[in-house]
Amino acid sequence: MQEFTVAEVAKHNVPKDLWCIIDGNVYNLTDFADAHPGSAVVLHKIAGKDATSEFYSFHRQEVLKKYARLVIGKTAVLQKYPLPPPASFSKVPYAETLATLTKPSPFYNQSHLAFKRAIRAFCEENIAPDAESFAKLGKIPTRETLLAMGETNIHACRLGPGPHLKGRTLLGGVLPEDFDYFHEAIAHEEIARAAGIYCYAEGLASGMMIGAPPVLKFGPAWMKEKVIPSILSGEKMICLAISEPGAGSDVAGISCEAIKTPDGKHFIVNGTKKWITNGTFSHYFTTAVKGTAGISMLLIERSDGVETEAIKTSGTGSAGTAYVTFTNVKVPVENLIGKEGQGFAVIMANFNHERWGMVASACSAARFIVEECFKWATQRKVFGKSLVEQPVIRYKLGQMIADLEAVQSWYEAITYQMTKLDYKQQTQQLAGPIALLKYRCTRMTHLVSDNAVQIFGGRAITATGMGRHIEQFQRTNKFGAILGGAEEVLLDLGVRQSMKVYPKDARL
Ligand code: HEM
Fold this sequence. Notes:
Elements: H1 6-10, E1 13-14, E2 17-22, E3 25-28, H2 40-46, H3 52-58, H4 62-66, E4 71-74, H5 110-137, H6 143-151, H7 154-157, H8 181-203, H9 206-218, H10 221-232, E5 238-241, E6 257-260, E7 266-276, E8 284-291, E9 294-301, E10 306-310, E11 322-332, E12 336-337, H11 343-379, E13 381-382, E14 385-386, H12 391-420, H13 423-456, H14 468-476, H15 479-482, H16 487-500
Helix pairs in contact: 5-8, 8-11, 8-14, 9-10, 9-11, 11-12, 11-13, 12-13, 13-14, 13-16
C-alpha cells in the first residue's frame, strides 16, 4: 500500500478532491461523498484531516470492512483500532464468560475452549454474513447453510450428549464420548451471538432443538432410524407443534384432536397449532394431540391436509414461525412418540432441555449486548467526555454485568448437574430449578435490554447503524419471557416442584 504523509493528505481538502485519514489509512471520499448516508456536508468538514475520532462516533467498525475499496494508502500513524482477527475472543471486560479467557473454572477444560473457538469460526464464516440482511428480509437460511451445519455436526451437537453423536467428527477435535452439556451450551451461545437471539438464529434449525428430542428419547426404533439422520444432516427440518391459539403455557388445554380409525391403524388429526418455530419450512411436526386416551405425541409428516402459514411476529420471517392447520390428516399409529395418552410426560421432559437451551442463548445474547454497551459508552462522547465517565452510565453497566454473571453462575451450576444426572433424573430433579432459572434469566435480559436502550438513546430504536443490535434485542427480548413457558407459569411450577419434595417433618 502506498504511504502518504499527513501533510500530503491535508492538501486534498475540498469537495472535488476529498481525502481523509481514518485509523492510519487514507481514504479517497471524493466520489463517495454524495452517496454518504450521513451526508456530503459532514465529510466536507473533515476533508484533508484525521477523522478517526469522528468516524468512531457514528459508525461501527464493520463499515470500514465493507468500504475497504475506498482505501488508497496508509500513513506512518500507527493503527489504533485493528479489526479483531477471525474467531478471536473479545478482550472487552465481561464480553466473554469468565472461563473463556484466563480465569480458572471448575466446569470448562481445553476441549470446551477448542470447541468454542471452532464453532465461533464456523459462525463468523457461515452465519454472521447473512444474519442482518436475512433477518431484515425475513428470509429463511439457505439450504447450503443448513447443510453446512449438518456436515460439521452442529445440528447433532445441539441435541446434547448421547448415542446420536457416536462416530461423528466434532468441531474443535472434541471426541463424541467427551461431549457434554457444556459443549452443547457453547453451541447455543455461539449461534445466538452470531445470529441474534429470537431473530435469524431462530431459523437455524432451532425448531429441531425442541422438535427432535422427543423422537430421540421416546420415539420407536424405526422412527429414529428414518428421521434422525436426515435431520442431523440438515436435509430435513423438524419442529415442535404444541401451542395453539387457545393453549400456550396451558398445555393441558390443547384441543387438536386425534381420533383412531375403527381398524385401529391410524389417527385422523384435526386442529390448529400457533407460533410454531420453523413450521413454514419443516418436513416433520412433533405434535401434541388430544384423543380418548388423553394427550399423546405424534410425529406428523408434511402431507395432504397439513398446511402452514407464516405468522408475522416482532422477530423475523427467518424463523419460519407458522400457523399450522391439520385437516383430516391420516397418521399411522406407529407414529406415536411414547405411549398413547402419555404425551404430557414427554412434553414436560422436553421442556427442561428447551428452557435450559433458551437460557444458554439468552445469556450469550445479553453478554453481547453488554459488550456493545461497554464499547459505545467508551467511544461515545457527550458533554465533553465519554459516556463511561458519567457515574450514571457506570451504574447501568454495573447492574447489567452483576445480573448477567449471577444468572450465568446459576446456569453453569445446573448444567454441571445435568452432566451428572441421566435424562429421567434431570426431569425429576431439575424441572423446578430450570423453570426458576429461566424466569431469572428473562428478568435479567429485561434489565439488560432496558439499560442498553437508555445507554444508546435514539440509536437503540434505530434499525441500522451503531445501535442495530440493541434495537433488535429490545424488539425481540420479550419472546424469552413467553416462549417455553411464561415467567409467571415458571415461577409457579418451580415452587410446586419443590412442594412435592417438601419434608413432611419440617416445622418452624
Ligand atoms: C470511509 C469513510 C466513511 C464511510 C464508508 C461512511 C459510511 C457511512 C455509512 C454506511 C453510514 C450509515 C450508518 C449505518 O446506518 O450503518 C454513515 C453514516 C454517517 N456518517 Fe459516515 N462514513 C464515512 C466517514 C464519515 C466521517 C469521516 C464522518 C465524520 C463526521 C461521517 C459521519 C457520518 C454521520 C454523521 C452519519 C450518520 C449517523 C447517524 O445516522 O447516526 N462519516 N456513514
